[in-house]
Amino acid sequence: MISILPVQSYASKHIEAVNKLIIESCGGESQLIEDIVNFIVSSGGKRVRPIFVYLCHNLCGKNDDNEDLVKASAVVELIHTASLLHDDIIDEATKRRGKKTANTIWGNKEVILVGDFLFAKSFQIISSIKNIEIIQILSAACLNLTRGEVMQLSARGEAIGESDYYNIIYSKTAALFEASGKIGAIIANAEAEAVLQMGQVGKNIGMAFQIVDDILDYKPSSKTFGKKNGADFFEGKTTLPVIFARQGSKENSKKIETIFTQKLFTEENFAKTVAIMQSGQVFEKSGNVAKFFVANCTTTLNNFPPCKAREHLFELISFFCERDF
Questions:
Q1: 86, 108 contact by CB (below 8 A)
Q2: 317 φ/ψ sector (left φ>0, alpha ψ -120 to 50, else beta)
Q3: 90 assigned to some structural domain
Q4: Quick check: is 325 in a domain?
Q5: Which of 159, 160, 202, 284 could tie 178 with a disulfide, CB 3.0–4.6 Å?
Q6: Helix (H, G, I), strand (E, B), or coil: what is residue 99?
Q7: What are 73-90's pLDDT values in tens digits?
Q8: What's the rounded Cα separation, in Å, for the pair 166 and 207?
């Protein structure tokens, strides 16, 4: 498996600047906000979205680490973090990246309010760049993110199809990656076509990443990032592996339908669901969809000349989207 360490090393100074800005911008507000923000910054997150902003910026011909770029990356991370704080409460999660979630330490009400603060702070920071296009892109991404979470919550236990699933994962995951790619290119003063291409790379990497994450939730012995196997199942989320499992034999399809529509989310039924997925080559089918989105990333990136940023973008794609499925 490709290591993310070379990518993190390449962007290390940028990430240090991003972490510093996040801590400084949230300081002096209240002890609760400072405590939770410091907890988040030190929690060991990979900062993949700020790294993606940085790589897209550099791919478009700029290798400087200017103030606007740091602000944009910090904002993307703040939006992502705020959404995770809210998600952990909605999902009743107690662990993330092997550590206690913020809501288990400080409480749901406190964390909801801090999540709201981080959303508001992100727009205060991005408005200082004074670029209306960037503000519009991030506003649309935030709207999509919230819409995706609402759609997913409403669809729990429902027999949704592929189209609805792709709409959900685009909104809740891929839209912010798409925005990150566009913003990095805009700050590099790239041509409109390059901005669109960086957005397409972001969208495709986000779609592939989420599909692989959903596969690993069911695949036995997989090492997922920050959650144990079955989290999606016990929360009643209809993901691509579930959709493909429903498309199998009539008998197996009925079993999956019954489990999800009647919300029979037990350990025994999780094992049955995994067995059905294994027998129906569901992991392979879902993996092929992820590979389709990865191929789209590769095609677009090959339009750009070879450079360190492009090399690391390929590594980033491999690390997050070609995990063992």
A1: no
A2: alpha
A3: yes
A4: no
A5: 202
A6: strand
A7: 999 999 999 998 988 888
A8: 8
Q: What is the CATH number of the domain that holds 54?
A: 1.10.600.10
Query: What is the distance in angstroms between the CA of the first residue and the CA of the last residue of the chain?
Result: 12
Instruction: Tell me the per-residue pLDDT of 46-61, one tens digit each, with 9 for 90 and over.
Output: 889 999 999 999 999 8
In this prediction, residue 65 carries a pLDDT of 76
**Residue 15, domain extent:** 5-320
**Residue 313 tokens, joined:** 């973008």
| SS3 category, 96 | strand
pLDDT of the residue at 227:
55
Note whether residue 234 is domain-resident. yes
User: b or e along 86-113 (b: 16 or more beta carbons within 10 Å of the residue's beta carbon)?
Assistant: bbbbebebeebeeeebbbbebebebbbb
Q: Is the dihedral of CA 262, 267, 271, 277 positive or negative?
A: positive
* Helix 308-321 and helix 282-301, axial crossing angle in degrees, nearest 10: 170
Q: Which residues of 3-29 are buried (b: 16+ CB within 10 A; e: fewer)?
A: ebeebbebbeebbebbbebbbebbeee
φ/ψ bin of 60: left (φ > 0), alpha (ψ from -120 to 50), beta (otherwise):
alpha
Number of domains forming the structure of the chain: 1
* pLDDT average, residue stretch 222-237: 74
> What's the rounded Cα separation, in Å, for the pair 324 and 287?
9
Residue 225 has pLDDT above 60, yes or no: no
> Which residues partner with 95 through β-bridges?
100
Model confidence, pTM: 0.92
CA distance 218 to 232: 8
Give CA separation, 98 vs 95, 207, 224, 241, 313, in Å. 6, 24, 11, 25, 27
Instruction: Give residue for tokens 């962007």.
Output: 11
Distance of alpha carbon 138 from alpha carbon 141, whole angstroms: 5
List the alpha helices (DSSP H) in 156-281. Answer: 162-169, 175-187, 192-216, 231-234, 240-246, 250-261, 267-279
Beta strands in the chain (DSSP E): 95-96, 99-100
In a domain? residue 58? yes
pLDDT recorded at residue 158? 79
**Average pLDDT of 81-100?**
83
CA angle 220, 319, 176 (to 5 degrees): 100
| 226 pLDDT more than 60 | no
